[in-house]
Amino acid sequence: MRIVLVHPNYHSGGAEIAGNWPPAWVAYLSGHLRDAGFDDIAFIDAMTNHLSDEALRARLAELQPDVVGTTAITPSIYKAEEVLKIASEVVPHAVRVLGGIHATFMYKQVLSEAPWVDVIVRGEGEEIFRDLIRTVAAGQWPAGRAQIKGLAFRDGERIVATAAAATVKELDAINPDWSLLEWSKYIYVPLGVRVAIPNMARGCPFTCSFCSQWKFWRDYRVRNPVKVVDEIEKLVNEQQVGFFILADEEPTINRKKFIQFCEELIRRGLPDKVKWGINTRVTDIYRDRDLLSFYRKAGLVHVSLGTEAAAQLKLDQFNKETKVEENKEAIRLLREADIFTEAQFIVGLDNETPETLEETFQMAWDWQPDLANWAMYTPWPFTPLFQELKEKVEIFDFSKYNFVTPIMAPEAMTRGELLNGVMKNYRRFYSRKALFHYPWRGTGFRRRYLLGCLKAFLKAGFARTFYDLGKAGYWGPQSKEKVNFNFDRTRRIAPAQMDDWEAAADRASQARARRESRQPLVACGGSTAQLDEQPPLPDATPRPAGAAPSPC
């Protein structure tokens, strides 16, 4: 039985300015399938290769798969639906499968607007997709689909969702197959090396109101750090990967295992071969201030911090559980440890003003991170913050829900003025950095890395792919009143999905009440004292390979 996985051809002008990112979902799904005995698997990376619909059509006709699978985050959902529409026309006998976070939470919307989608995998895909493939291989599809947990599908005019599947408990049992990817095409522009996105943990114990990851992964689980380093060492040796970013929402939550991970990298001499970056919270950096130089020794060179907002009011609205002053201190601590810092700001809520945009710039310049990023607030319809703001959301063209397009219309600004204000922040921040910081601060690796980051910005800027500026028709302040974001305003929410939203609003309200009546969540499932504990610095002798993992 032949399985073909397709990564949809969607581009937004956001994170991809730093390079082409390898679709990790393909490696993790295909590795689990191979372990179950299914080895006739092909992969089509339509995004990296900019494949047209016609080229995709020809490739599917050539491969003649029995199953076609694709995935989608919210902005790529229409492209993913189109992949399966093409499959329905070219290989109508093939079972057409859609997974990912958007389809998981919006399956009623997807199955209403794209009835050619045979089945949706809801939640983590490895075990659910494997069970689905087994059912197809046994000739029990579609009769046996109702017995598989974690699916959604159409049964005549009805939309059916089976019981939710359990989360993957044995993450170490998943052996990703990275060989399917075209590694020569996944380049991290700042360093000009191959890049990978391995996964150490899944889930997050925090409940930021604008984020849906904690809802998707549900419970927080960590892999054996030695197994993760095994995977990274294999990527370095077999695929010549020179940079990786941990896909985790916050890999430093479990400090004991993160330390073990760093020790294992050092023990194997990998920091001389590969550098890496993470996203994490400022509170973890502040907590680990005595460990930052050790993290740098392990090859950690880039930390993207969810500072999110310059005003405490917005941090509280986002349920970030952080303070503005902690953001500044975390950046200072990282700078002293020679770790590059990237400050992330969320802008574009309904209460955004020119003054608040200016405040984020002044705060960023005062904090002096190496990089700063202003992301447009995107009202994921499956997040708590959406439930609070949904009456003010008027755009349901999900292809624009990409962090670079102003979905919300601030009361005090037009969308064009908002985009212009964000671009003004970028112009000022990076022009000053380019003139007075990047070429003159530090030598060797630091200078090369920062100039490489500047190169990535300039490359995307000249190509007008940065922030989708070319498509929007933005050419500078003089064009702010003429910007056209090309929203498809015919897009609406399916009645079945609207009913789910109303139910979700009730559940969110009840959950909020429960949160307010109990102690804050803590990481690792431990006590509050565990988060405040200051472990001794690792000694010069790293923990040997195969040592027992920490109990947390």
Automatic annotation (TrEMBL):
<keyword id="KW-0408">Iron</keyword>
<dbReference type="Pfam" id="PF04055">
    <property type="entry name" value="Radical_SAM"/>
</dbReference>
<feature type="region of interest" description="Disordered">
    <location>
        <begin position="504"/>
        <end position="552"/>
    </location>
</feature>
<dbReference type="InterPro" id="IPR051198">
    <property type="entry name" value="BchE-like"/>
</dbReference>
<dbReference type="InterPro" id="IPR006638">
    <property type="entry name" value="Elp3/MiaA/NifB-like_rSAM"/>
</dbReference>
<keyword id="KW-0949">S-adenosyl-L-methionine</keyword>
<feature type="domain" description="Radical SAM core">
    <location>
        <begin position="190"/>
        <end position="417"/>
    </location>
</feature>
<keyword id="KW-0411">Iron-sulfur</keyword>
<dbReference type="InterPro" id="IPR058240">
    <property type="entry name" value="rSAM_sf"/>
</dbReference>
<feature type="domain" description="B12-binding">
    <location>
        <begin position="9"/>
        <end position="143"/>
    </location>
</feature>
<keyword id="KW-0479">Metal-binding</keyword>
<dbReference type="Pfam" id="PF02310">
    <property type="entry name" value="B12-binding"/>
</dbReference>
<dbReference type="InterPro" id="IPR034466">
    <property type="entry name" value="Methyltransferase_Class_B"/>
</dbReference>
<protein>
    <submittedName>
        <fullName>Magnesium-protoporphyrin IX monomethyl ester anaerobic oxidative cyclase</fullName>
    </submittedName>
</protein>
<dbReference type="InterPro" id="IPR006158">
    <property type="entry name" value="Cobalamin-bd"/>
</dbReference>
<dbReference type="InterPro" id="IPR007197">
    <property type="entry name" value="rSAM"/>
</dbReference>
<dbReference type="InterPro" id="IPR023404">
    <property type="entry name" value="rSAM_horseshoe"/>
</dbReference>
